[in-house]
Amino acid sequence: MLYGYFAILVYILIALGFAGFVILASHVVGQRKSTATKLSPYECGMPTIGPTLRRLPIRYYIIAMLFLVFDIEIVFIYPWAVIYRSFKGFGFFILGEMLVFVGILIIAYIYVWRKGALEWE
Amino acid sequence: MAENVVMLFQWLVFLGIALVCIFASIMVISNKNPVHCALWMVLTFLATAGLYVMLHSQFIAIVQVIVYAGAIMMLILFVVMLLDLEVELRSRLKFLYSKAIGGFFAVLLMLGIFYAVITRVLKGNVGSFTPEKVSAMGNVKAVGKVLFTDYLFPFEVASILLVVGIVGAVIMSKRREARKE
Fold this sequence. Notes:
The structure holds two protein chains of two kinds. Chain A is mostly helical. Chain A has a domain at 56-121. In chain A, 66% of the residues lie in helices and 0% in strands. The longest helix of chain A is centred in the first third of the chain and has 26 residues, at 4-29. Chain A is flat, with a radius of gyration of 25 Å. The relative contact order of chain A is 0.05. The model of chain A has no long low-confidence stretch (mean pLDDT 84). Chain B is mainly α. Chain B has a domain at 1-93: Four Helix Bundle (Hemerythrin (Met), subunit A), CATH 1.20.120. Chain B contains eight helices and no strands. The longest helix of chain B has 29 residues, at 2-30. Chains A and B meet through helix 3 and helix 4 of A and helix 3, helix 4, helix 6, helix 7 and helix 8 of B.
């Protein structure tokens, strides 16, 4: 039952082992000369201005929230698509279920659109 | 003999995942930097997904990775970035008695878990979907079959819950923009 996941476990262990080995090896073998320039924060070669922990505008939060909602919608659609063919004779019933679900979310989408939350300014 | 080796191996894997999970959770609550906390939380979610796989719930495991470690974590990170962390870190605000109150509730919760494990009060009935049956018919199929027949109404209600989430986010952020003008 879970034998198929043994390969994934081995894969994870090899990936972790390789990453750990490379970091450890560069730590042991490599030489370090720290200067003031090297230790300063680097951002695209520009000197940093002002505080680094800046507050983001709330617009990002709306985008993240919309992404989360439609992500969950996809999670529900996936098992629906898998079992769709097994409902012989009830095709309209199960199609209707998903149409109601998606329809309610489309109302929310239209609401967001009309409110102008998708506009960036 | 072979059965015992498999059991021992599964136990070892479980132990490893559980230890990673506990360690990452402790790092989440003990770190000062909220962004580091969020990154440790991703590790906690991934380890929990591993636990779901060990419980033969592969679909829930993948959903855990996609929705929790992906989407919800991103939301939490945006909320962290919305806050003024500089002020928070500089002020070093400490709540009085916070450790005593938190410790009290933590001990209470631990005693509750110990009680439940020792006396085995959490003993639900065995459902019709046993791990063997679920593995035979396929995890996603089992979830879909139950979700779109027995739990049809909660499924449709979930969509309304999602709408409420969207409307709430839009109303709260729009009001702030209106105040700025």
